[in-house]
Amino acid sequence: MFSTVKSMFFRKDAETPAEKSRRRAQQSHLMLSLGGVVALCVLVYSVPDNVALSVYRMAWVILCSIALCTFYAFGRRNRGLTFRPALLCVLSILAQMFLMHLVISFWNRSFPTMHEQVLLVLPYMLAPAVTAVLINRAVGVFVALSCTLYGAVLFPVTFPLTFVADYIVVSLLTGVIAAGICGHLQKRQQLLYAGFKLGSVVFVASMLLLCMHSEIQGVEEFGSTLTLQLLMAALLSLGVNFLLGVIVNGVMPMLEGVFRISTHITWLEWADMNHPLLRKLQMTAPGTFHHCLCVQRLAESAAEAIGADVTRAGVCGLYHDIGKLNNPQYFSENIVDQSLSPHGDLTPEGSARIITGHVAAGVELAKEYRLNPKIIDAIREHHGVTTAYFFLRKAQDTYEAELRRFEDGLTDTSPDEVDKSIFTYEGPIPQSRESGIVSMADAVESATRSLHHPTESDIRTMIDGIFKGRILDGHLQDSGLTLGEIAKMKESFFTTLRTMNHNRIAYPKPRETDAAERLSEKRNGAAESSEKKGS
User: Is there a contact between 114 and 221 (Cβ–Cβ < 8 Å)?
Assistant: First the structure.
């Protein structure tokens, strides 16, 4: 533990860029944690009690912070938090603690004899739900544990210790369930349903604890009968948690913009085929749209195979070629008759500028429509620094032919050598696993189109060749993909392409002679029946 803290501040001579970035992230996390602890200490000191009790509460906060910091340091899934998600965690905990302080203070003044009923109105789900939706479930559970420990010292001395124990049980239970429910929502409306579910959890848990203690003090103020008392308690807990669901649902878009975090819900909204860019792509460049759908399917299957973000990989695959909207007629998937390709009227350099320019055009369109920065990165990186090889080879063939004519004395002008940079994409190479997946899915799907009636052996050979070439070129070296994950990707691509290119049964067409014979038989039958009637 002490060596970890020491490594955060003392720079080593042989520090790599990755280690430097990791050290800075650790420093930012530590500074955020210290700031949050100071804010919590100020909050617990503001509770009007004697100095000794305030010091005890501050000591509790500090000790709990050390324990939580140690737990975080050994938690593998939480180490990848960057500055903004970590700041979100700290601020959400502080917000829930401050709101709890307000609720407890109000309840203590308004209902001094009804201690147990305050369990129904505390904001247990606020911080765990926000962090679970915006980051992930594991962080939501960690925040729920933090809020439970910190919240235990916010109650005045008039609250008995048994109540604090009840609070810990209800808070931890509700927070963990909130993180589990909100960790993978598909629609924003589900946050409202989550509020109802968590309200039910709070009500049932609180009532069970009250029954265990066999003391319901002050409940006569809720109503004159037990049924009315329970009804009022249920409405109170359901109403408070539903209101919290509304608040979380309302502030979610603002938090996404401020902290530059995209939720699973937002990714699903971008995958909606009614998005203006996708509708325009479908109408203007139907061939490119179909290609993007195939890349989406390949990327999702590969991401699932290696444990990457399936939704992110699929959405990035869906948008990776939107830059072709500017000149759709120059891309082969949109040209019905290749003999009428407009590239016949252009030089290889002119064609290459149009082909490679779709990356920059796609980035501009993505920024115009305010797509997620990770989608923009995938658009920028999906070709890396590869070349438009078809036109590069065409330019080289033209140069060699002109050079032979010059050497034979047929022309007086020596041709200029081919500038390979004109035919090379600007890059960079993929910087994330999802970008690497989209890049390889794009290359594999495009190559599959050139195969006529491919067999399984043809598909596997093609995939192996593409991956071998990209690995040797260093295309995937910064993506974070391991050799084991690349092997799983290849197998996933093969399975998906084999399914997409499956053969159908060739149904025989009816012969004209068969149809003529059936018509003749029908006519002969009609003639025989008329003769019988005449006779």
Answer: yes
- CA torsion 358-361-363-369 (nearest 10°) is -130
Residue appearing with tokens 């939580």: 68
| Residues forming a β-bridge with 387 | 424
Q: How many CB atoms lie within 10 A of CB 360?
A: 15
Helix/strand/coil percent split, the chain, to 5: 75, 0, 25
User: What is the phi-psi region of residue 335: left when phi exceeds 0, alpha when psi lies from -120 to 50, beta otherwise?
Assistant: beta
For residue 385, the surrounding DSSP H or E stretch is none
Can the peptide bond before residue 112 be classed as cis, meaning omega within 30 degrees of 0? Answer: no
pLDDT in tens, 403-458: 888 888 888 788 888 889 999 999 899 999 999 999 999 999 998 888 877 888 88
Q: Do residues 193 and 140 touch, judged by C-beta distance below 8 A?
A: no
What does R_g of the chain's alpha carbons equal in angstroms? Answer: 33
**Residue 119 neighbours by CB under 8 Å, 6+ apart:** 163, 166, 167, 170, 202, 206, 209
Burial class (CB in 10 A: 0-12, 13-18, 19+), 232: middle
| CA 199 – CA 202 distance, rounded (Å) | 5
In this predicted model, what pLDDT tens digit does every residue of 471-487 receive, in sequence order? 999 999 999 899 999 99
141 exposure class (CB count in 10 Å sphere: 0-12, 13-18, 19+): buried
